[in-house]
Design brief:
The chain is of the alpha+beta class. The chain has two domains: 150 residues, no CATH class; 130 residues. The protein is built from seven helices and eleven strands. The strands form two sheets. Strands 1, 2, 5, 6, 7, 8, 9, 10 and 11 form a nine-stranded mixed beta sheet that branches. A hairpin with a 5-residue loop joins β10 and β11. The longest helix is centred in the middle third of the chain and has 47 residues.
Length: 364
């Protein structure tokens, strides 16, 4: 469990939200030391941040695409002060109820990617919406990092915040069973999860909070991994849909020039479209097969499965109808092109045949 003593919010109640926020050096980096240097310098440059801690092992490596590398393990934590007057203008039109000006940010880099827990320090009102803390922190850091003369940016993976409010509280009467129990309460807006812990099992509510984080971090890391893969599937489906639209536009062109373009240019495009559909379908199947194994492994070792249906829906979401439509478009239009090509060939043969006969008559 990470050594952290800054997330405590009060003696009886703690509110926290979760999201996926990643610090990314604007300049290209090639080593982990470079990455840490940019992140440390950039965060230290913000006056609103205090108690900054970067906890990474000496063998930490960068993973992910080069344009958005992140560490494969480790932790970044800090306190962040955002006055209420600033919170009110960060996200116009939203009624953000954090009920605090001080937040604790705990960014954990797990196997499948980063997860950030944000705690509303000092808030004890049951009207607190801890998921709103993720919005406030996200908007504030993005704005301040853009203003700072430091090459550091904050990127996010949605949904950030994850659509749930989380509350931790003690139950002195709880003496048996697991040290922390979780109860998911559905809500019209954001669902709520109440974590209740045995007072005798932890020295403080902060220790109980860190225990909850350690139980949730792998689940949310996998969730946001599934979100990134889902976004990849969406991008692939959008790309083939655009290709199909372009192919349709070519087939709608009128006149002799349009006919010639259809006959001689669209065959290769239709073939490329089908190949891209096949690639997208293959990648989609592999992601879902591997994801099913990852889900099984995760929940075999987990004490809770609070958000399993959410992860399963994210994994199952594909864009097969879009891919099938693109494939059907390519198949149908290639059939039309093939018929037109045959007509052109017959016409050309007839024309050339008549010309050859005339030339032969003149020569005899």
């Amino acid at each position: 469990m990470p050594d952290d003593h800054h997330a405590h919010t009060g003696p009886n109640l703690t509110f926290f939200g979760v999201g996926c926020l990643m610090f990314r050096p604007v300049k290209a980096v090639s080593t982990f030391d470079e990455w840490v240097g940019y992140v440390s310098k950039g965060l230290n440059s913000l006056a609103a941040i205090t108690n900054l801690h970067l906890d990474f092992a000496s063998d930490t490596e960068l993973v992910g695409p080069p344009s958005a590398w992140y560490p494969d393990s480790g932790q970044i934590s800090f306190d962040l002060t955002i006055p209420v007057r600033l919170q009110e203008v960060l996200y116009p039109g939203a009624h953000l109820r954090t009920n605090t000006e001080t937040f604790h940010v705990d960014a954990r880099h797990q196997f499948y990617g980063p997860v950030v827990f944000i705690t509303c320090r000092g808030s004890s009102s049951l009207e607190t919406e801890p998921a709103h803390s993720v919005i406030v922190v996200r908007e504030f850091l993005q704005k301040e990092l853009r203003k700072a003369d430091e090459p550091l940016a904050l990127t996010t993976v949605g949904p950030s915040p994850f659509h749930v409010n989380m509350i931790l509280c003690a139950n002195p009467d709880l003496k048996e069973g697991p040290p922390v129990t979780a109860n998911l309460v559905p809500d019209k807006a954001y669902n709520e999860v109440y974590f209740t812990y045995q007072s005798d099992a932890f020295e403080s509510i902060n220790d109980a909070l860190l225990y909850v984080f350690s139980e949730l971090e792998d689940e949310f890391s996998l969730f946001y991994h599934f979100v990134r893969q889902r976004n990849e599937r969406l991008h692939a489906a959008s790309r083939v849909s655009e290709q199909a639209d372009a192919l349709i536009s070519l087939h709608r062109q009128r006149g002799l020039r349009g006919k010639l373009r259809r006959v001689f240019l669209t065959s290769a495009r239709a073939r490329d479209l089908v190949l891209d559909v096949i690639s997208a379908e293959s990648a989609q199947r592999m992601q879902q097969i591997e994801g099913a194994v990852e889900l099984q492994d995760l929940y075999e070792a987990a004490n809770w499965n609070l958000f399993r249906p959410v992860l399963e829906r994210q994994l199952a979401e594909d864009f097969s109808p879009v891919l099938r439509s693109a494939r059907d478009t390519a198949t149908v239009l290639e059939g039309v092109r093939s018929i037109e090509f045959q007509v052109v060939v017959v016409a050309a043969s007839t024309l050339l045949g008549a010309t050859a006969g005339a030339i032969a008559a003149l020569l005899t």
